[in-house]
Amino acid sequence: MTARFRTALLALTLAATAAHAQDAHAAYPDQAIKIVVPFTPGGATDAVARLLATKLSGKFGQPVIVENRPGASTLIGAEAVARAKPDGYTLMLSGSTTYSVLPALKPALPYDPVRSFEHVGIVAMAPVVLLAQNALPAATPHEAAELARQQTAKGGLMYGTFGPGSAPHLTGEMFAQAAGAKMVPVPYKGSAQLITALIGGEIALAVDTVSASAAQARAGKVRALAVTGDQRMPQLPDVPTFAEAGMADVSFVGWYGLVAPAQTPSTVMHTLNRAMTEIMHDEQVRKSVSDLSLNPVFLPGQAFRDQITIEIARFSAVAQRAGITLE
């Protein structure tokens, strides 16, 4: 076998291998896809994941299954996806808790929010709302801030959260810092307990998701003072944003993002990005997301990574000033 013949044969082999790999990737997906949700069933993250699963299945002609893997503040599910085979058949939909809050507050994680994943896109934003008990003499965030300053010398106003490092906790600390006051976070297991405590007068203020608390506010059981985000929420149209109220530094907005494991082939990522772009521009999908009291968006690739970087820096600064750490 001449050297020229061997070289030609090697070139043909490499070309055939490349073509086979390209065909394999072009065929994606040819089996079921799994979307891991690191929360229990029934919440907003789970609802968004199931909506996306249905739409992706329709586009791809393959089953798309949601697998709930809760535990350890989303670490169990996130680590599993970070270690999964990077072939596009294991994805994760999770909230900013996984991508920016925990990395800002927890010294060691079993994954890196940027390097451990390929970022498909952020699909929804989730503003939160500052609530007050009806007996509190505060109808605006500024009046609540004044009360908080007055109570600082007495130990501080108590406000409800979902526990250390949660979205309500960080938002409450942002509000306290904007008010120049000391406030006392009180942890509850979820929205139901938090709202009950607020109605019963156990706490003066609370921070909750709009989706969980809008109905109670509209019914007059609690008072909504301000929402985070750039725009008012349709569920609470009379409630101003913190920016409108002159407290733009109170800026925590949760969000939900879809990722694949790092090293997922670019051809697979292109297929996923194209499908998700079409899905998130579908008016029916946008309405379904809005009905969950979320703002539908699509921030792909670099915009997703930029959001992570900006928020880690912001939340780290808030946590340092407030002395928040997670072990």
TrEMBL record:
The answer on whether this UniProt entry bears the keyword Signal reads yes
**Alphabetized UniProt keyword annotations:** Signal
Annotated transmembrane regions = none
Signal peptide stretch: 1-21
Tell me the SUPFAM superfamilies matching this sequence.
Periplasmic binding protein-like II (SSF53850)
Give one Pfam family, short name only.
TctC
> What family classification does the UniProt entry report for this protein?
Belongs to the UPF0065 (bug) family.
Q: What is this protein called?
A: ABC transporter substrate-binding protein
